[in-house]
Write a structure and sequence with these properties.
CATH topology: Spore Coat Polysaccharide Biosynthesis Protein SpsA, Chain A
Order of helices and strands: EHEHEHEEHEEEHHEHHHEEE
Structural class: alpha/beta
CATH architecture: Alpha-Beta Complex
Helix content: 25-40%
Radius of gyration: 18 Å
CATH class: Alpha Beta
Number of helices: 9
Shape: globular
Mean pLDDT: 85
């Protein structure tokens, strides 16, 4: 099974090397790694060139934002399954992709998702927030739930059927994409109870109160478009889903091995879409 991993960049020199290294250190080797750059003016392109032997293909051209760039990467992809790894993020361990492939091969599903941790930007050993997933039930979308997008992998042929990211939703484009597939089109999914990605804290939708309000407005429009009942109320509930994620940082047991957090893992749980 070929796995296409897409990273989009725009003046990403600060952390891009960490991201690329986490890909080429994967012990699963049938990976197609694609980088789509938005005409960076810092040292991003030099980092890409320096790591060209670990990159299957890359382009650098102007785009209409992050999700437009992701769509370009998807159109370049030839893998059986596709996932996104942000330029500030990294795989949590060398067997992250292997775990993803095993989940697809052992379960009759069209998508999977796992756990994610937010870490301090300058100290990736310091965990700020733990995004703990849950067994897949389509009905969870009715209460503002969503998988962690950086851990979401889906079969490429489904994207050809149900479409790309809709760029006009801006910061809610990832939520709209998953709601369209998992809720509207009832695509089956599997929860992989494993920490897959370490994500540096911060983000476009959480910088100010004004940006958070705009993000909630876009969430509401995405919910309404995908026929999630009581969309206005659900859009209010959605941010509240994050509160337990901060508490779980203290409650979740983990150990540090070879400089990486290794959370105690439970078996994969599979639920068909209801």
């Amino acid at each position: 099974m070929k796995v296409s991993i897409i990273t989009v960049t725009m003046n990403s020199e600060k952390y891009l090397s960490d991201c690329i290294e986490s890909v080429w250190r994967q012990n699963y080797k049938n990976i197609e790694y694609i980088i789509v750059d938005g005409k960076s003016t810092d040292g991003t392109l030099q980092i890409i060139r320096n790591n060209s032997k670990h990159i299957s293909s890359w382009i650098s051209e102007t785009d209409r934002g992050m999700y437009d760039a992701i769509n370009k990467g998807i159109q370049m992809a030839t893998g059986d399954i596709i996932g996104i790894l942000n330029s500030d993020d990294m795989f949590a361990s060398a067997d992250s992709v292997r775990s993803i492939v095993d989940c697809f091969e052992n379960n009759p599903v069209d998508s999977i998702y796992g756990d994610l941790v937010y870490v301090d930007p300058n100290n990736t050993q310091k965990i700020i927030r733990y995004w703990k997933g849950a067994s897949f039930k389509r009905s969870r979308f009715r209460y503002g739930w969503m998988p962690a997008h950086p851990t979401f992998y889906i079969r490429r042929d489904l994207i050809q059927q149900f479409g790309l990211y809709e760029n006009h939703y801006y910061t809610a484009a990832d939520y709209e994409f998953m709601a369209r597939y998992l809720f509207l089109h009832k695509v089956s999914s599997c929860y992989l109870d494993t920490m897959l990605v370490k994500m540096r804290s911060g983000g476009l939708s959480n910088v100010t109160i004004k940006s958070r309000f705009r993000a909630n407005r876009r969430d509401y429009l995405a919910m309404k478009k995908n026929h999630i009942p009581f969309s206005f109320i659900v859009s209010i509930l959605k941010p509240l889903q994050k509160i337990p994620q901060y508490k779980s940082v203290h409650a979740k047991q983990y150990s540090i091995v070879n400089g990486e957090e290794n959370f105690f893992r439970l078996p994969v749980t599979f639920f068909p879409a209801d």
